[in-house]
Amino acid sequence: xxxxxxxxxxxxHLSRARGxxxxxxxxxxxxxxPLDQIAGIIVHARGTTWSTALLTELGARxxxxxxxxxxxxxxxxxxxxxxxxxxxxxxxxxxxxKAPMLKQAWKRIVLCKIGMQAAALAMTGAPNAPLDxxxxxxxxxxxxxxxxxxxxxxxxxxxxxxxxxxxxxxxxRQCPAELRLHSPAGGCVAGGCGGRAAPFGRVAPFxxxxxxxxxx
Length: 216
Hints:
Blueprint: E1 3-7, E2 13-17, E3 20-25, E4 28-34, E5 38-43, E6 49-50, H1 52-60, E7 65-68, E8 74-78, H2 85-95, H3 99-124, H4 129-136, H5 146-159, H6 165-168, E9 212-215
Parallel strand pairs: 1-5, 2-6, 5-7
Antiparallel strand pairs: 1-9, 2-3, 3-4, 7-8
């Protein structure tokens, strides 16, 4: 299963070891996942370090790495440079895309985003029917701004107490309990217990209580 790995715990070191992404903290390995299963990596955490060997291997596999700022917004992307015409062709196709195609692409992105938010709420036991209703109202280009309406509904339920992602800045990012990944000793892998995979996908267990999630 392809995974997008979301690193949200401060002070981790990412490296490559025999075909796997190895995650360490204070010199001790706390988790790993096969590179073959990684579709992308998102780094939210402060103080994250990584090895050049890992980044070059990710580039060779066509895996992008997204770096986020203090407000958890994407700031830059490390993209592979393939020595072949396909990459240039894709860039030209995107550059030349007409407005109707761009609007349809944005509609699909919004539908996927709302769908994942609904799945996450369902996993925590929160009501997600309003998100399903919003998804049915998404138009080409999302002219009715269902994306923002869904976000206003989703974040207070997910974070608790009406806390938005922007308000999370500076107070120590905390994942909902149902989304944490626990150590093997805890017997919990993702999305609850018993080794069940979250709707976001599944990653190798990292240290108990840390916010290291996988989204599909």
